[in-house]
Amino acid sequence: MWMRGAYWWAFGAIGTLTPFIAPYYKELGFSGTEIGILVALPATGVAFFAPIWGAIADSRANHRLVLRAALLIPAMLGLLLTQLRDFWPIFLLVATLALLYAPAAPLIDSYGLMISERHKRSYGSLRVWGSLGFTAGVFVVGELMGADVTTLFLLAYSACLLLACLCTLRLPRLSERSAGPLWGGLGAVARNGPLVALLLTTFLISSSASAMYGFLSIHLRELGGSAELVGRAFALNAASELPVVAFGAWFLSRLGSTKLLGLAIVVYIIRFIAYALIPDPEWVLPVQLLHGLSYGAFLMASVTLVHGLAGRQLAATAQGLLTSMSFGFGSISGSLVGGVLLDRIGTVGIFWIAAGVMTLTLGVYVVTVRRFHIEDVRTIGTG
After folding, report:
1. Which of 3, 103, 281, 352 could be bridged to 223 by S-S, CB 3.0 to 4.6 A?
2. In 10 A of CB 370, how many CB atoms?
3. DSSP conformation letters of 49-102
4. Which of 122, 114, 136, 98 is nearest to 13 (CA)?
5. What is the pTM of this model?
6. Residues 6 or more apart from 107 whose CB is under 8 A from it?
7. pLDDT in tens, 316-345
């Protein structure tokens, strides 16, 4: 129950923040470049500090303390953010938040993988509670704000993080081993060729995908959509991933992890093209149904492959690196490039470029699988 609650509230916090933060910055009067920088800051924290926090947690065997700090302190900073209006104070606060929040998601996933293996159940049956929390968070906040983006979403973000922190009080120890060298885990991962190749592929996927997550809200607002529509669109997003995550073991057993990841890339390409072509903001709703077979499939396949290639002893380190490369460096590149392009070619142009980059990524992925003979992992957390 406590693991499900941690997933629900932690990802509920992401749902209350991510869809609304870019249009909030725009309504504060920031330029496209400034928005790109601010949107990239959380990813920067993940990129540089998620692996370090993961290595610290693994080496000290004190994952719970690191996780609780990563939830509690950012909750306080979220409240402070409601009082700021100028770029540089917001930049400094968001940078600090990004540094401290970086290990939260990978550590929660590490707990989910450990508990699923210990109790012989699928990882997806736990992770689906994160999708449910995201769906509820983004829908409720969007409905409450109505037409305009207000600081209500920041208050909801802080509340969700505090509740997630409370849920960690009953979590067990993540690792049974004693403390070890801090950099030992990172070195072992660096020597794992197939794992490194997979991490580079996830970077390319997320570089394009971040253009959608960072600028779709602005695109909908430019088409005349309300904050309420943005909330509904992203709630439908999360809802569509529920069956893919909940029945992740079934998808993995039928397709295998490598084919499932390839399917995710193809569906991402279709989504980008659709976003570029829609003439009315309401048309985004049916397109959002493709989220499950893009992000949901990407999540299940990448987490499963990384866990299988790294092993249990490097669980937090490997998941931290996955988060770093995909939601860190990948999101940084997509956000910064997208922010620069926003004032030059607009959101439609960004989506067309993202579709092209994702098409190239599909070719890179096929070569990577064949070159390193990456084998399928068809189940996780069931034995």
Report:
1. 281
2. 9
3. HHHHHHHHHHHHT-HHHHHHHHHHHHHHHHHHHTT--SHHHHHHHHHHHHHHHT
4. 136
5. 0.70
6. 53, 54, 57, 63, 66, 67, 70, 174, 316, 319, 320
7. 667 777 877 887 788 888 888 888 888 889
289 φ, ψ (degrees, to nearest 5): -65, -15
Provide the residue range defining the domain that includes 275.
2-170+181-372
Spatial separation of the C-alpha atoms in residues 224 and 104, rounded to whole Å: 35
Give the domain CATH number at 239.
1.20.1250.20
203 φψ region: left (φ > 0), alpha (ψ -120 to 50), beta (else): alpha
Q: Is residue 93 a part of any domain in this protein?
A: yes
Which amino acid, residue 143?
Answer: E
If one counts the domains in the chain, the total is: 1
In a domain, 175, yes or no: no
Residue 86 CA to residue 263 CA, distance in Å, equals 42
Query: CA–CA separation, 29 vs 37, rounded Å?
Result: 14
Residue 367 domain flag: yes
* 347-379 pLDDT tens trace: 899 999 999 999 999 998 888 888 776 766 555
CA distance 209 to 200: 14
For helices 227-246 and 123-145, the axis angle rounded to 10 degrees is 170
Q: How is residue 281 annotated by DSSP?
A: G
Q: Is residue 224 exposed (0-12), middle (13-18) or buried (19+ Cβ within 10 Å)?
A: exposed
Assigned token pair, 259: 């084919």
CA 245/CA 126 separation, integer angstroms:
9
Tabulate helix, strand, coil % of the chain (nearest 5).
Answer: 85, 0, 15
Q: Determine the distance from the C-alpha atom of residue 348 to the mean position of all C-alpha atoms in its chain, rounded to a whole number.
A: 23
Residue 373, Cβ neighbours under 10 Å: how many? Answer: 7
Domain annotation covers residue 382? no
